[in-house]
Amino acid sequence: MKSIQDKQNQIVQEFSDFKDWETRYQHIISLGKNLSPLADEFKIEQNKVKGCQSQVWLHATLEEGKIIYQADSDAFIVRGLASILVQVFSEHSPAEILASSTEFLSEIGLTQHLSQSRANGLASMVRQFKNYAIAFQALLGK
Question: Does pTM surpass 0.90?
């Protein structure tokens, strides 16, 4: 299985193939369209990501010491951003997730090209992914 760093490097490489931001936005939207929809039972208040302008839900389970993330949003671009984070962090241990950097988001230009509200929402999503990792790490007693 690929490491978080390997997944991040793959995404950076993927985005470097796109020369303009219109193409990158279209790619992010297509990633969102390919994200498996979150079951309605998980679209509840406690799974909402606070700090996002759009509605975003994040659900996580711990399976054999690895966190499995599922996400959804009512906005196409946000759904795509959530898809990138799910792709990077799912199926890794809480410790691996907490030790990882999110610098790759800057490397692909997201922090520079997103509107302020979308950038804040992305930061809130990253924080929620990490919060789940903290909670599961505590549950594992590590």
Answer: yes
Selecting among 4, 31, 52, 125, the annotated active-site residue is: 52
For 24-57, the pLDDT digits (tens) are: 999 999 999 999 999 999 999 999 999 888 999 9
Domains for the chain: give ranges and CATH numbers. Answer: 4-140 (3.90.1010.10)
DSSP string, the chain: ---HHHHHHHHHHHHHT--SHHHHHHHHHHHHHHSPPPPGGG-SGGGBPTT-SS-EEEEEEEETTEEEEEEEESSHHHHHHHHHHHHHHTTB-HHHHHH---THHHHTTHHHHS-HHHHHHHHHHHHHHHHHHHHHHHHHT-
Rounded CA-CA distance 38/142 in Å is 29
In the annotation, is 33 catalytic? no
Tokens at residue 115, please?
A: 């509107």
- Angstrom distances, CA of residue 84 to CA of 29, 55, 90: 11, 17, 10
